[in-house]
Amino acid sequence: MKTKGVLMLLLALTIFLTACNSSEEAQTIILAENQVDDYPTSVGDYEFARLIEEKTNGRYKVEVYTGGQLGDEKSAIELMQVGAIELARVNGSPLMEFSESLGVLSLPYLFSDDEHKWEVLNGDIGETLLDGLSESNLQGLAFYDSGNRHFYNAIREVKSPEDLAGLKIRVQQSSLNIDMVEALGASATAMSYGEVYSAIQTGVIDGAENNFPSYYTTNHFEVAKYITMDGHSGVPEVLTASKAFWDTLSDEDKEIFKEAALESQVVQRKAWAELEEESLREAKNAGNTVTVIDDVTPWQEAVQPIYTKYGEQFKENLEKIQSLVK
């Protein structure tokens, strides 16, 4: 019913936008965004929209619909697949359901540092992953930053994998995430993210894992006073297009859209860095213990069984990613 309602809304929008456009006026296209207006991904979306209008001399106008007006991320993916909307910003995790090759990005401690991550994502490997979405009627344009995920808990400071032993940690529902947490010695509990605050507060779980802004904006820092910046996962956001729309573009316009997406990434990453810095500062001001892990080698060694179990299916891209470590 929810998807049907969104489709009815889009039909009305299409009729309206078609009435507003003529062959000599701007073609208005829709970009779906489930975050609020001032969130870093939305900031990137608006910069992308500005660049598209500028680079095409007004031939295209991107209308950004923030706050989940057009449904959640999975709904946005499905709407792009049927050509109901042209663009969306979605996280890489739900996209993995539609492109197996993207799954390599979910492997723990995959990147040695942020420089390595962005060399991969903005290079040939990243382009291959983005183009691989075409098999699911999608086209990736560029990656956006969503930071790195860290462990946090209400019990004790965690400086090493041994310190995680026995802690009950909430994870996203996936075999890989559960296996990762258990390889590190903790007990994995899958539950809705919206339940985490009360679950920590009541002792149902001891902690969870997410990026620093989420740790702060969800108020989890109030009930989980210890956060360990181990950066075990760095799955990015993806600015994505409907293949039905993409195939209508000339080669020149395709290049413009990719250029605009990559240029908007600069603004988006800056906005993300500022939000991350603000969240870190506020958590420290609240008296929380922030533990920085300078050497992740023991953590990488602890999760080697994950690479043994899952690495083979991503072998080619994994080897390329690892070859770029300096």
From TrEMBL:
Keywords: Signal. One of its GO terms (biological process) is transmembrane transport. It comes from the Bacteria. GO terms for cellular component: outer membrane-bounded periplasmic space. Residues 1-19 form the signal peptide. GO terms for molecular function: carbohydrate binding. Pfam families: DctP (PF03480). PANTHER family: DICARBOXYLATE-BINDING PERIPLASMIC PROTEIN, PTHR33376. This is C4-dicarboxylate-binding periplasmic protein.
